[in-house]
Amino acid sequence: MNYLVYTGYFFYLIIFLIGLSLGSFLNAWVWRTRENFRIISGRSMCPNCRRQLRWYENIPVISFLVLGGKCHTCHNPIPIHFIFVEISTALIFLLAAWLHVRAPVFDSLHFIRDLTFLVILIMVFIYDFLYQEILSELVWFGALAALFFNLYLDRSLGYMLIGALAIGGFFFLQYVISKGRWIGGGDVRLGIMMGIWLGWPVVLVALIIAYVTGAIGSLFLLLFKRKTLSSATPFGTYLALGTLVCIFWGDQIVSWYVGLLR
């Protein structure tokens, strides 16, 4: 096995470990943000008894498995989504790395841009899934980051603005008509961020994916009696999922659809 193969394996291993570590950090960020703790104050702690964790209790995935999913002190269960977020973040980072390495030209700035977008999307997904809330400061930061990266990468400002106005306007119209019953203000802001990230018409694909997956997900929850017709749906999770898919394959989906029309 030659040097390039070893280098490739090492690159993927590093990306995977970075993803695991970031997943652990995102769990802490979500919990600290909700509990009004400063993000950088103190070490990680048990969300139940608030005891500070020792270093060997804070290793992504491994500590969860070794501890049997319970706090060593209070023996309360560690939230199961902790390990799910860690593994999912690592696998999503690994997928991003694999797709970029397979591209005709590896653009490091484009790769960093996509990883930044993915981290923000995962944060949106987790927070909305757990608390049915989309944080304004997170979304506006994501929109500004997207504007900076995309302009630097020479992406069309016009397509970004069209995407932001189209999706943000679509959600805002629903918000006004329903007086906030159908959709929340956070979804409006998230739509603007999606438009700047993906541009037009790729953002439209993300919207369609969000509605389709949202409908399927809600149907399954109804069938298994995990929710009722009157239950609130964290639509931001589906918007984040649609955007994630389009970060990886949005341009290809648009090209495929245009090819069908010819």
SSE topology:
Blueprint: H1 3-34, H2 62-66, H3 81-102, H4 108-131, H5 136-152, H6 157-178, H7 185-198, H8 202-223, H9 235-261
What does this structure look like?
There is one protein chain. With 262 residues, this protein is mainly α. The protein folds into two domains: 1-106, no CATH class; 108-262, no CATH class. It has nine helices and no strands. The radius of gyration is 20 Å and the shape is globular. Mean pLDDT is 86; it is low at 1-6.
The secondary-structure element order is HHHHHHHHH
Secondary-structure class:
mainly alpha
- Bulk shape: globular
Measured between the Cα atoms of the first and last residue, the distance is 46 Å
**Rg (C-alpha, Å):** 20 Å
User: How much helical structure, as a percent, in the residues?
Assistant: over 70%
- What count of domains describes the coordinates? 2
* Total count of helical runs of at least 4 residues: 9
Average per-residue pLDDT, rounded, comes to 86
Count of strand segments: 0
Sequence stretches where pLDDT stays below 50 over 5 or more residues: 1-6
List keywords for this structure.
262 residues; disordered N terminus; 9 helices; mainly alpha; 71% helix; single chain
Summarize this structure briefly.
With 262 residues, the chain is mostly helical. 71% of the residues lie in helices and 0% in strands.
